[in-house]
């Protein structure tokens, strides 16, 4: 093989390696992306059962139930547009979790349309609201005070 052919083969091999690496990185990133949806988006059918996603909204007043001595909790998340999603979570809820407050949960819908949460994040202080929830509420005509959003304690 001539020196020119060797250089071309080397360049082609490097380009092929870079292309393969790029495809693998993009595929890994795509698998780890968790999209944020509001109750309105979920009700509109934008999420398929079994698809992992992040649900955010306000815990509806009077919706929280838990059997005595059980870690299984049921509550409803709303976005003040009339859309609601029932959430089932088994585990210890954050100390600051309460009705009427913003929350974000990671999980997936089951076939019955109930959101099975793997993790529930509550607000950090009396002014906290996740950026996703604040944006969603502002888009729906519910203005958020400037000091009402901060960063998540755990993400």
Show the helix and strand layout.
Layout: H1 3-32, E1 35-37, H2 39-43, E2 53-59, E3 65-66, E4 72-78, E5 84-90, E6 102-109, E7 115-122, H3 131-139
Parallel strand pairs: 1-2, 5-7
Antiparallel strand pairs: 2-4, 2-6, 3-4, 4-5, 6-7
Features of this protein?
155 residues; alpha+beta; 2 domains; five-stranded mixed β-barrel; 3 helices; 27% strand; elongated
Give a quick rundown of the structure:
With 155 residues, this protein is of the alpha+beta class.
What does this structure look like?
Strands 2-4-5-7-6 form a 5-stranded mixed β-barrel. Helices cover 28% and strands 27% of the residues. The model is unreliable at 147-155 (pLDDT under 50). The chain is α+β, with helices and mostly antiparallel strands and 155 residues long. Strand 6 (102-109) and strand 7 (115-122) form a beta hairpin. The chain is built from 3 helices and 7 strands. It folds into 2 domains: 1-33; 35-148, Beta Barrel (OB fold (Dihydrolipoamide Acetyltransferase, E2P)), CATH 2.40.50. The protein is elongated, with a radius of gyration of 22 Å. It has helices at residues 3-32, 39-43, 131-139; strands at residues 35-37, 53-59, 65-66, 72-78, 84-90, 102-109, 115-122. The relative contact order is 0.14.
């Amino acid at each position: 093989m001539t020196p020119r052919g060797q250089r071309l083969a080397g360049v082609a091999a490097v380009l092929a390696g870079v292309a393969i690496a790029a495809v693998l990185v993009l595929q890994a990133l795509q698998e780890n992306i968790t999209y944020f949806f509001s109750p309105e988006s979920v009700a509109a059918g934008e999420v398929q059962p079994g698809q992992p996603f992040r649900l955010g909204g306000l815990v509806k007043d009077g919706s929280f139930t838990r059997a005595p001595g059980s870690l299984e909790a049921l509550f409803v998340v709303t976005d003040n547009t009339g859309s609601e999603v029932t959430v089932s979570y088994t585990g210890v809820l954050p100390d600051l979790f309460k009705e009427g407050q913003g929350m974000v949960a990671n999980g997936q819908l089951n076939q019955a349309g109930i959101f099975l949460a793997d993790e529930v994040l509550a607000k950090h202080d009396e002014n906290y609201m996740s950026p996703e929830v604040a944006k969603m509420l502002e888009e729906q005509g519910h203005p958020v005070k400037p000091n009402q959003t901060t960063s998540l304690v755990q993400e």
